[in-house]
Write a structure and sequence with these properties.
The chain is of the alpha/beta class. The protein is built from 8 helices and 8 strands. Bound molecules: D-xylitol-5-phosphate and zinc ion.
Length: 228
């Protein structure tokens, strides 16, 4: 049985009750917390910094926190997010002049490292750094906002990255981010993803436990389909 992980994106949570809502989504069955950092420069939106992550840790959120940096530059923020309690830090190759150096910086600060690909970003960025990656994140929307529609071009890209990961000796999470819903998650899983960022697809639902259970059921079916 493949191991699928759900990473609810708190970009769609209720920011006036962020601690409570984050706890609720983990208690309802979320695996990681996906923490979207936007700077109104690399992307046209502004969200959360390390202080907010620290507050979630103080609120006793113990689940892995997966920081997705949509900022430019990124290096100055990495030590701050690591100290605040991040487990994973993922960035976009266009947002730094030295991808390899930034990956090293994340590792030096004790976090797992990820590289994020916009819909139009070439996978060539993987060629010389795949050994250093714990996560490959494929954006299935243009970054900046929740609740956008999944871009179908992601399916082929997922298959391509899955091939590269399977040729590799160590395991790398293949994460998909943007427009992932109950209705399309099994096809996304079938194309090779194993970590699913879901924002509005969970938080816009009145009962997190119920929707997460349904999503997991869909994922089980995709496992079944892949065996037959
Ligand atoms: C978009 C963010 C996503 C977003 C996904 O820039 O990186 O994580 O929150 O939201 P949904 O699932 O609503 O598309
Ligand atoms: Zn994200």
């Amino acid at each position: 049985m493949k191991n699928f992980l759900l990473a609810p994106s708190i970009l769609s949570a209720d920011f006036a009750r962020l601690g409570e809502d984050t706890k609720k989504v983990i208690d309802s069955g979320g695996d990681w917390i996906h923490f979207d950092v936007m700077d109104n420069h690399y992307v046209p939106n502004l969200t959360m910094g390390p202080m907010i992550l620290k507050s979630l840790r103080n609120y006793k959120i113990t689940a892995p926190i997966d920081v997705h940096l949509m900022t430019k530059p990124v290096d100055n923020l990495i030590p701050k997010f690591a100290q605040a309690g991040a487990n994973f830090i993922t960035f976009h190759p266009e947002s730094t002049d030295h991808v390899d150096r930034t990956l090293n910086l994340i590792k030096e600060h004790g976090c797992k490292a990820g590289l994020a690909f916009n819909p139009s970003t070439s996978l060539n960025f993987l060629d010389y750094v795949i050994d250093k990656l714990d996560v490959i994140l494929l954006m299935s929307v243009n970054p900046g906002f929740g609740n956008q529609s999944f871009l179908p071009s992601t399916f082929n890209k997922l298959r391509e990255v899955r091939k590269r990961i399977d040729l590799h000796t160590s395991d790398i999470f293949l994460q998909v981010d943007g427009g992932v819903k109950l209705e399309n998650i099994s096809e996304i899983a079938f194309s090779g993803a194993n970590v699913f960022v879901v924002g509005s697809g969970i938080f816009d639902h009145p009962d997190y436990q119920k929707i997460i259970k349904k999503i997991r059921q869909e994922l089980k079916c995709s496992n079944f389909k892949s065996l037959h």
